[in-house]
Amino acid sequence: MLTFATWLVSILAIYAVVGFVFAIVFVWRGVGRIDPAAAEGTWGFRLLIIPGAAALWPILARRWLRGEGPPEERNPHRNAARKGGR
Questions:
Q1: How much is the pTM?
Q2: Which of 34, 45, 51, 52 has a CA positioned 20 to 30 A from the CA of residue 84?
Q3: pLDDT value of residue 85
Q4: Where does residue 60 rank: exposed (0-12), middle (13-18), buried (19+ CB within 10 A)?
Q5: What is the predicted pLDDT for the residue at 70?
C-alpha cells in the first residue's frame, strides 16, 4: 500500500509542477489567444488565474494548441434562437 501511495503522490507532484510551468507561460502568452477579453487583462488578473490554469492545464493546453476561441454558451434559449424560435 505504501508503494501505491508513493506512486500516487509522485504523479500528483508531476502534474502540479507541469501545471505551474504551463500556467506561467499561459498567462504570459496564451490567455489572450483563447480569450480576446482576457488579452487586455492586468497583471493582477493574470496572477489570479495562475492557480486555475495550473489545475486545468490539459484543457487549456488543448484549446491553446487548437487555436480555439472562447466556448459558446449552450442553453435552451440560445438553441431556440439558433433554430429561429417557435
A1: 0.77
A2: 34
A3: 57
A4: buried
A5: 80
DSSP conformational letter for 73: P
Cell matching residue 72: 459558446
Is 73 part of a structural domain of the chain? no
What is the domain count for the chain?
1
pLDDT tens digits along 28-46: 999 988 988 888 889 999 9
The single residue listed with the C-alpha cell 499561459 is 26
List strand residue ranges (DSSP E) for the chain, in order.
Answer: none
Q: Is residue 51 part of a domain?
A: yes
Query: What was the pLDDT predicted at 86?
Result: 57
The CA-atom distances, in angstroms, between 14 and each of 8, 21, 23, 54, 57 are: 10, 11, 14, 12, 12
